[in-house]
Design a protein that fits this description.
7-stranded mixed β-sheet; alpha/beta; Hypothetical protein af1432; Endonuclease, Chain A; single chain; 2 domains; about 10% strand
Length: about 475
């Protein structure tokens, strides 16, 4: 990282903390898709955000200047940082009252960065990257195709991190224009903490995934090897969009902020106890990380049945045609996540057939849905009991007893499996937590997922 860059300052601030930042490498075409999605969300939203951008050079800004005139009409203030080129300051967009340009010195490390920082009372979003140096490209050298240029950094919706980065950017602007920096700081401090609702987050993520998929469709690279690399980068970021959404929904639940990570860890261990194949455990783990993205689930208990939009008497005849549950529908935008959407949708089915949304019973409920339902309920109960004065062993035992009392909900064979797991936990077994804050999502994707989801009959049983 370049010394003094905003990316480097952010990384340094978090290096010794309990939440270090995870960075990734992004191709230019991925960043274009991400930024266009986030910019276009501004056009469809009425929250009038503060927008701070860095374009590296003025010529890149000029390619987007007309577009930024529209964005300015939907923003409170826009600040654009870039090394000036001919026409940088003369373009009509630059003359708008709520648009300010900051002409960066050629030697300024921020002139090598690509930023989009959005602060709104309704949501926050950020792309923060720095272009690789010629030495970073290694023996392959600097790419000849502009789309293959690589950048190192991150993108996120996390309010605290976005606001912290905005303050670093404002501090950098202070060196060039103290008056503007003071105005920006006053406005930034006046913006209340973003109240991120699941509906608004689903809208943003849906747009991001749409644009990333469009980027895949428009790829035209000379060699298949380069095409595959660019395609994989876009796909990885589609998965990251969902993981970031799930992370924010966890953080919003102050009573159980580690639900996704803990449920994923328990689910993975359960899959190993049941001797499931690696690809199925991987799919189960992803479903566990995303299991609370559906806004119709309550934070109190993920096992509260969802409200079905499909008549109960019709549902059992077409168990894999799930009702239009918003969270699951967003996941279905990616063909490789349709099976995960199915798992999440059917986690509220009951073993005796009285659950929703499809009224499935017994082995007709997808196996991963049955596992997810049980481990999510177990995790929630353990979390609730942690405020008591009981020791670790008693907490696990009590949570297990409460789960076993719900024989109408849970597969009895899975109750036996989690009993074995609880015995291990009581004897000191530690489960590695899987955080949803990952730099790449490709490890979660398996080639088997390219095909249609398996039917409930195919995944409804497991080794006994």
């Amino acid at each position: 990282m370049l010394e003094g860059s905003i990316l480097q300052l952010l990384e340094t601030a978090h290096r010794q903390t309990t939440r270090p930042i995870h960075f990734g490498v992004y191709y230019k075409n991925t960043l274009v898709a991400l930024c266009h999605a986030l910019e276009d969300h501004i056009l469809s939203d009425e929250s009038k955000p503060l927008v701070i951008t860095a374009f590296q050079r003025g010529k890149w800004y000029l390619q987007e200047a007309e577009r930024y005139a529209d964005i300015a009409n939907h923003s409170h203030q826009i600040v654009i940082m870039a090394s000036p080129d001919t026409g940088f300051a003369e373009h009509p967009t630059s003359q708008l009252s709520n648009v300010d340009l900051v002409a960066l010195d050629a030697a300024d490390s921020v002139a090598q960065e690509w930023h989009l920082i959005i602060l709104s009372p309704k949501y926050t979003a950020m792309v923060l990257c720095q272009e690789l140096s010629p030495a970073d490209y290694g023996s392959e050298g600097i790419p000849t195709s502009d789309l293959e240029r690589k950048f190192y950094g991150l993108w996120t919706f996390e309010p605290t991190l976005v606001r912290e980065t905005a303050e670093l950017a404002i501090a950098h602007i202070q060196k060039y224009n103290p008056e503007l920096a003071q105005k920006l700081l006053s406005y930034e401090q006046a913006i209340p903490p973003a109240v991120i609702t699941s509906d608004n987050l689903l809208t943003v993520v849906s747009r991001v995934v749409d644009y990333l998929q469009t980027g895949q469709e428009q790829l035209s690279i000379p060699t298949s090897q380069h095409q595959k690399a660019l395609d994989s980068n876009l796909l990885s970021n589609e998965v990251q969009a969902f993981l970031r959404m799930a992370q924010l929904m966890d953080l919003a639940d102050i009573n159980n902020p580690m639900a996704a990570a803990e449920v994923a860890a328990i689910a993975e261990t359960m899959g190993q106890l049941l001797d499931l194949p690696a690809w199925q455990i991987k799919r189960l783990k992803l479903a566990a990380l995303l299991h609370r993205i559906d806004p119709l689930r309550t934070a109190q208990s993920v096992l509260t049945p969802a409200t079905s939009t499909q008549p109960q008497e019709i549902a059992p005849s077409c168990p894999l045609s799930c009702p239009l549950i918003p969270g699951a529908q967003v996941l279905r935008k990616m063909s490789r996540l349709r099976a995960v959407a199915q798992i999440i949708t059917h986690q509220t089915e009951y073993w005796d057939g009285t659950g929703e949304p499809a009224g499935l019973a017994g082995d007709a409920i997808p196996l991963e849905s049955r596992i997810l339902a049980l481990v999510a309920d177990f995790q929630w109960r353990v979390n609730q009991l942690q405020s008591s004065q009981q020791n670790r062993e008693d907490i696990f035992a009590q949570a297990l007893v409460e789960c076993r009392e719900q024989s109408d909900r849970f597969d009895p064979k899975l109750l036996d499996a989690i009993t074995l797991l609880v015995m291990g936990l009581q004897q000191g077994l530690d489960l590695p937590l899987m955080t949803s804050k990952v730099s790449t999502g490709m490890w979660l994707i398996d080639s088997r997922w390219d095909s249609q989801s398996k039917t409930s009959e195919e995944i409804g049983s497991y080794p006994r």
